[in-house]
Write a structure and sequence with these properties.
Keywords: Membrane, Transmembrane, Transmembrane helix
Transmembrane segments: 27-48, 68-92, 98-117
Region (Disordered): 165-193
Radius of gyration: 27 Å
Shape: elongated
Organism: Kribbella flavida (strain DSM 17836 / JCM 10339 / NBRC 14399)
Helix content: 55-70%
Protein name: DoxX family protein
Structural class: mainly alpha
Length: 193
């Protein structure tokens, strides 16, 4: 379902681009915004009370945190906040590069929770099983790829230049040697004549 949100949002936004909305004139920007829409949905689950069972809730997400991660409850809140900040960063042109790379890192860091949920067969409060690995790992790779695509398509902004100065270096053309100007004969001073 979550992949469907990413795909549908991206297609709708790109369709708006086709209708003349300049912000969504490229697939990369539309996908960045589509990922932001998806993250708003997934981040909301981090804050949903346990009494809500129509979608994954905070208690469900705490259960999928591997035992080696300390402060599972706080980590779920933290990752929810990071997802919200990442979504905001993706829609702001000036921060898209940093947000894309930060989210790519977050997707890698959060993968062990999904692996743990699948291998330990953690069930959610609504009775739904955790997403099986054969489905979840390709999904995570897709999210990571879209985040990197968004980052790489971001314009050269001050944040990008600050955090990644090599990305702004442009190859300089070789300087052609300039011929030295010919020396003009100097006129003799009148006192010498």
């Amino acid at each position: 379902m979550i992949v469907g949100v990413l795909i549908a949002a991206t297609l709708v936004l790109r369709g708006l681009g086709g209708l003349g909305v300049r912000r969504f004139a490229s697939w990369a920007v539309s996908a960045a915004h589509g990922l932001a829409v998806m993250l708003l949905l997934t981040a909301s689950a981090h804050f949903v009370p346990a009494s809500v069972t129509v979608m994954p809730n905070h208690a469900d997400l705490v259960r999928i945190v591997p035992p080696f991660v300390p402060y599972a409850d706080a980590m779920v809140y933290l990752t929810g906040v990071l997802e919200l900040l990442g979504a905001l960063g993706l829609v702001l042109t000036a921060t898209r590069w940093a947000a894309g790379w930060s989210l790519a890192t977050l997707f890698v860091v959060m993968l062990p929770a999904n692996v743990y949920a699948a291998t330990e067969q953690v069930a959610f409060a609504n009775g739904a099983p955790a997403t099986p690995l054969w489905q979840r790992i390709p999904e995570q790779v897709l999210y990571l790829a879209v985040a990197v695509w968004a980052a790489r398509s971001a314009p050269r902004t001050p944040i990008r230049r600050l955090l990644h100065p090599a990305a702004t270096l442009q190859p300089q053309p070789e300087a052609k040697p300039q011929p030295e100007p010919e020396a003009k004969p100097q006129a003799e001073p009148e006192s010498v004549r």
